[in-house]
């Protein structure tokens, strides 16, 4: 869909400056004892998964305003995801959501192959009712008071595993909306026990080389309590289930002011950090573009991840999970994937010997300066050079716009009417 | 729809105990120098508006799970609202939302008359796109960068006034979703100036005996900034527009930890408190049932309102504004209307001479005890007696369930499929 | 200090009404199938510990404004605590803070016996430096980078146990201020490991019939990170240490909006709920009087505790922990102890069969009504009757004021100058 | 105190690299159409005031851990402030706090002249009691229920003006701790009216060329309500008082999640933005080093300030206001002054034509990229070159440490014992 000629033409606009900037940055890093090429290699090898649902325009309970060329189904979504990876070289895999993305495994594999992608973690959906469904999830799924509803939710998760197994996925991510809207509506303990019991049934169906990720969230869609409300409960779940169970951290799922990078460190310590859903937020689960609100927080998370590299069993999965309500979703995901890379590279630049020395001597100012020096470094030339060397775009947004992709797909994909949402 | 026989039969179950309880409470209040009958008169004269949209099951961006007998349109909604008032005697008026509730004014008046209701403030909708609409509100309405879009939004508000004027409404409430999702997306000041300019055009179309209410909200559907983000901006708007403009306070639209009762006091001081959207929340704009999370906060708001009674120009409008996702909306609104009455009555019971004496002498413990003594009083017998004397139900939920209303309407109103919402 | 005559005289003012109110409440509860006498017996047997430091006027980092008759040391404090229990019959034990309350064990026991109190959990202090101290806690205590500082902190905790053991205490509560003020200042994981190691040394010194309580807190005095920041970390600690280690919950130590009653339920589930520091808060660790801001939240916590009664190993400790900046501390603690009792009694009134039935059938409205009905019950007559029957005051504040205790102690205890605090 | 030789020696370590980096950054900026020298000129002309109290080690209500060489009084403080400006060239003025800094005006002027500083806004203190004071501020100052206490507070503010007038200050900043700890303790409206009345008396005593800044704060030291709780109330005050009255914004004084840069824009719009107290915070009024927690937020504030440059009457004052609990206060203030400069320079780099174009066309991604491109630029060479050209230090922290200033003053200033604070 995106011709190499277009990429090359776009790169021609930026190539000379990039080489200049890469060299001068290289010289500056060299003074700090850092090899720019080594860093470039690390980021070139780094990939983050994109969510299939992220290429559609998102919305709120008040409204959804679709853009032009909305994907009609999983195969259109894979096309769009392919474009993201084609231009950035940063997103080699896609995470599917079932039943939204249900399709013949062979067709999925064939399409993925065509667009140069593989499949990341599978995502089940028991927070919505499907047309054919026997039991409603209005009052919960894995933790529902009714055994048949729980069984149906377990069965759905097993089905996700079965599909994932056929397309090369190695993980299942479970996020449920189960909770309550009134004090008293649920018995916290019994609800949790039902959840644990049902999750154990899903876990029992996990292939030996798979991992199960459970995701905590403070609130929404339930507004008084949520069954997996925070990392403490999430850790209890992962420990209850077993060695293949891990906690997934979504950056927008915490209480105000919470120190998320510290939660990351605690989960690493407990050997239960399974992965991330990256996005950004100012208020709640805003699902904004990664790094758009608080880029330093994102860096601090990666500072923990880089520090944990090499720890036994440490192998977290990275995925974007955003809602693109006012931008072209492809542009937002390209930009966000690059923000994640940026934070990763900045964290790689931290002088850890200096940091640890300052920590050991309680020299707080020097310790923070070690982080700030890394964070302040404009590492764009490293990211861009890694892209260029892969045949991708120095400036993916520019190349994408030049390619006219959105207009092309809008010509074949029918327009969608704006819709009202949950409130009416 | 609800036969008086059913109400009477239900009341028979509770009448004897009610009389006993009313008497013993009367005696206790008498000791505090309070006439229970005088209080009962005040609550009997108190009414709160219900929102037409509140009788449908609400949802979130993740899903909406409709119940049985969802109203098919405004006339079904008026039937449901009529039931609420029929059983509680507490909700004599309905607030309409345009275009959802657009209909022939004569038909609206006739139906309202049939179910014993009148019309409260009109609500415009420029946070969603309608099928026939020329310009999209994706990037704003009254504050949009495009003049034609702003004009369309102004025009829609004028249309709401025109309809309201024909059905006896005396106020327009404006809430917009305008804001931004990224730092930089909008210029805060220019966006605000556009809003002020457009709002002034709406204000210019206000009949002489109408009021304009503007509503602030911290976030959602915009997740980085909102044009009318807090009461400070809301006050600037009301002062800019003129004497007929006032601020509307929705209890769920503030930052975490904010002292809402103090905002109420400030708006009273500024003579710009226009009214309330009552609900409750634990996290964000959760739109939970009023008083379900923090009943003492609701009492503290009413403590300010009772203290302000008699202040020149003080005449706030009261309305419920909730999203009923897991309950029968009629039950939730009956229960919530009674919670509002309860808080009002409790606030009436505050010994204001004692309170002021304690305040003047900085006796904080006695001051708070004056509030707590009032709040702790179980005033249910007063509310129930007021209902009984109006021919309504002592226990509206019990009478409603006994009447089988939901099953009856479910028999004639078609079932609605559960829907996914904004996220896909 | 408080003569029985004064109590009796005060009680004479309220006795007749109390009997009337107790009877009419008894009749109402009887209708709900509840024996008022049985409830009264339960509350009569319920006691909550008071903190020795709570009888002095508290302050903030900006200032402290002492009142008249501030206690000069632990023996004055025990006098004041004795008054609280003498009048309320609700606070049979005192929790000491070392080194503030260090004294000869025999003298402590003798004084406690004189004022009718026993000793609750011991509290260590490694968040301040003492004059004679070799190593400063400026950069931490149990988790300090320096081994000698950690050893000193461990030693201090062992000393607290030794003193406590001699005066009948059976628990040690550890709260540390360790954390950081800058990203990078500490290595989260190493700091945590140092904490675990040092805490294990304290745990090793615990007598066989003692319990160790660790307390989590989100922030303050450290403002970027705290080593035991939340219940998740606290649970990891208690599980690491062993069967005698439990988590202590202070109601004011959580992030905004957090559902604390759910944390209580999770810790009960994990069999690691050790106890509470009761207080109330609107913003941060405000240490306001229990139930003064959100009495329904306090009730919801007790709703969990009553539901957990009888669970194996469930035996949490209850203590007040407040800062009395603008009230007479004795009055605030009497009032707060009664608020705790009130919440306990209200929770006892919950119709659990109805609640569970509603929960099982997802009837959220009925479930919440079951809680609200209990919460709305004005149980003051039960609390007052329990006090009267113990020879305590029907209205402890009135009796206390009538007794003129504050003026009496002010005559012998020297006035203290107002002090500035941390900021300069 | 800091010899030029030491600065020069330190600069020798960094000079060559600085010239290289300045040149390569200049070339990169040149490509963006920006003259690096013009930017350097702007930052060279930019100054921020330091608070006299900021050079002492701060503390919390739990403890204060002084460092070596704590200043003994205002003249030591001026020495320390002189060092900050000597090395950074960024802090030409000092803000005094009365009565802490009370001294003979001639001596103050002479000392200021000696250390190369002038005097910024005066700060009054009515949140603490002083030894000689007739009336206590325990229950408030300007808003106290007692007229004599209010008069005393007014008088104190007038005394601050009188002193300031003699030393060249042109502004008074009022921050009060007045509020309440219990619902009911104060009557919100009467307290506010008393505040307005007393503030008007202070305002009446303002010289014609002075400005009055009032500061809002959500909570602390009062924990239920604060009389000037937010910018809405602050704006009401400034409008009530008159043309010389303006609102002061402290970055740490807001509710969680609040969009502070938008408040800045609203106050600019209202022509009432008076100035800033810069610091950073993660939880409450943490008073952490500016830019240490969320540097992007600081940039976004400066983005508003730069956008407002040239607006009629726009002339906000800039001051640091931090509590340095774990660092050398001089180091923290040097570092923070440079962080403020950094944010200012980054904001100057925003391509405003591109930004506005993107805003007008609702191209959110491009708009945010315009901000991010500026923010990502490592402008350290510009700041450092401006310092070097002023004869200051390229690396002020390194030069300061090399100078051994702290050890020198510790030799003459006596050690201070660690102190406990408000809690006991």
Automatic annotation (TrEMBL), chains A, B, C, D:
GO terms for molecular function: isomerase activity; metal ion binding. Keywords: Isomerase, Manganese, Metal-binding. Gene3D superfamilies: Divalent-metal-dependent TIM barrel enzymes (3.20.20.150). It comes from the Bacteria. SUPFAM superfamilies: Xylose isomerase-like. The keyword Secreted does not apply. PANTHER family: L-RHAMNOSE ISOMERASE (PTHR30268:SF0). This is L-rhamnose isomerase / sugar isomerase. It comes from Loktanella salsilacus.
């Amino acid at each position: 869909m995106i011709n190499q000629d277009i990429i090359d033409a776009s790169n021609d606009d930026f190539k000379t400056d990039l080489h200049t900037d890469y060299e001068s940055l290289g010289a500056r890093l060299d003074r700090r004892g850092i090899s720019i090429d080594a860093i470039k290699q690390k980021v070139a090898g780094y990939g983050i998964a994109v969510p299939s649902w992220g290429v559609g325009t998102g919305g709120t309970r008040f409204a959804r305003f679709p853009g032009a060329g909305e994907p009609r189904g999983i195969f259109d979504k894979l096309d769009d995801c392919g474009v993201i990876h084609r231009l950035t070289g940063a997103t080699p895999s896609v995470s599917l959501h079932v039943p939204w993305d249900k399709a013949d495994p062979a067709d999925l594999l064939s399409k993925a192959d065509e667009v140069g992608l593989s499949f990341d973690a599978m995502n089940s959906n028991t927070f919505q009712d499907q047309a054919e469904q026997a039991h409603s999830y209005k009052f919960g799924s894995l933790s529902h008071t009714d055994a048949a509803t729980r069984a149906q939710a377990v069965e759905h998760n097993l089905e996700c595993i079965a599909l994932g197994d056929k397309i090369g996925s190695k993980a299942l991510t479970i996020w449920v909306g189960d909770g309550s809207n009134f004090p008293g509506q649920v018995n916290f303990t019994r609800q949790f026990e039902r959840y644990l019991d049902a999750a154990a049934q899903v876990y029992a169906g996990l292939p030996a080389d798979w991992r199960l990720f459970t995701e905590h969230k403070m609130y929404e869609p339930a507004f008084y309590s949520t069954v997996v409300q925070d990392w403490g409960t999430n850790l209890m779940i992962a420990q209850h289930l077993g060695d293949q169970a891990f906690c997934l951290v979504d950056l927008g799922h915490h209480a105000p002011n919470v120190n998320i990078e510290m939660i990351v460190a605690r989960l690493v310590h407990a050997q239960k950090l399974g992965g991330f859903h990256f996005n950004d937020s100012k208020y709640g689960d805003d699902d904004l573009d990664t790094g758009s609100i608080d880029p330093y927080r994102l860096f601090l998370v990666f500072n923990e991840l880089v520090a944990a590299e090499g720890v036994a069993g440490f192998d977290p999965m990275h995925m974007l999970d955003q809602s693109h309500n006012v931008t072209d979703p492809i542009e937002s995901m390209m930009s966000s994937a690059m923000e994640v890379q940026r934070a990763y590279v900045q964290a790689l630049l931290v002088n850890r010997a200096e940091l640890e020395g300052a920590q050991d001597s309680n020299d707080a100012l020097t310790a923070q300066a070690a982080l700030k020096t890394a964070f302040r470094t404009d590492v764009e030339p490293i990211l861009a050079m890694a892209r260029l060397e892969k045949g991708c775009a120095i400036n993916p947004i520019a190349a994408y716009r030049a390619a006219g992709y959105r207009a092309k797909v809008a010509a074949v994909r029918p327009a969608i009417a704006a819709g009202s949402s949950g409130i009416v």
